[in-house]
Amino acid sequence: MKKIDDIYNGGRFKIERVEVDLPGGVTLERVVVKPGGAVAMLPIEGDSCYLIKQYRYPIDEYIYEAPAGTMNEGETPDETAYRELIEETGYRSDRLVPIGFIYTTPGYTNERIWLYEAHSLTPSNEFHKDEDELIEVVKVKKEEVFEMIRDGRIVDAKTICLVLKSLLSEEAVKAYVNSPGKE
Questions:
Q1: Cα angle 167-37-12, degrees, rounded to a multiple of 5
Q2: 108 pLDDT above the threshold of 90
Q3: How many CB atoms lie within 10 A of CB 169?
Q4: Domain 38-177 belongs to what architecture?
Q5: CATH 3.90.79.10 region(s) of the chain?
Q6: Secondary structure class of 62 (helix, strand, coil)
Q7: So what's the pLDDT on residue 177?
Q8: Nearest-CA neighbor of 160 among 171, 148, 170?
Q9: CA neighbours within 13 Å on the CB side: how many for 170?
């Protein structure tokens, strides 16, 4: 892939026009959106987890989603996850468990979101909600999260992926296998 020019460069992302050489000698011109990295966390407390209900202006709706945020320049995914968890929920995690990453829409963007479970939560005195975010923190039983995905109350792709990856994580599988009634 070879960059031809910048279409837009500012704020959170840039848009580039690129040339892509395909097998067989075909060259295509495409547009690639480059928003930078991000993280999403599933804060877990016992048999519950925390989601946020947040207004998203591009779709003009409040939606349920996992706390998430973008990486600052020079920041690692782990550092971003610690910071964003506090900024979005007011909780600090003493144990962030990385469970992989996703590409959000690889047909036109290179956006990668690192996924985490957040355990050992304690309230943080560093909590200062961003003025431009309309967020409500909601505590939900884990079983209810699955129902919210099934019935369409959770429609955010990163959150659905995060819940699935969390369910499939080794720690989650062990907890499920060892739970009462699972012999």
A1: 130
A2: yes
A3: 18
A4: Alpha-Beta Complex (3.90)
A5: 38-177
A6: strand
A7: 58
A8: 148
A9: 4
> CA distances (Å), 130 to each of 25, 69, 84, 127, 166, in order?
49, 12, 11, 10, 27
Closest by alpha carbon to 12, among 72, 76, 52, 102? 72
How far are the Cα atoms of 19, 99, 110, 147 from residue 89, in angstroms, in the given order? Answer: 42, 20, 27, 22
159-178 pLDDT tens trace? 999 999 998 875 655 665 56
Give the model's pLDDT for residue 133: 73
CA separation (Å) from 122 to 65, 90, 91, 118?
A: 20, 9, 5, 11
For residue 130, pLDDT over 80 is answered with: no
Whole-number pLDDT of residue 132? 72
Using only C-alpha atoms, the chain has a radius of gyration, in whole angstroms, of 19
How far apart, in whole angstroms, are the C-alpha atoms of residue 53 and residue 134?
8
| Residue keyed to tokens 């202006």 | 57
Residues 5-47: tens digit of each pLDDT: 999 998 888 999 999 999 999 999 999 999 999 999 999 999 9
Residues 17, 6: Cα–Cα separation, whole Å: 6
CA–CA distance from 16 to each of 26, 63, 111 (Å)? 20, 30, 14
The tokens describing 97, both together, are: 């468990």
DSSP 23: T
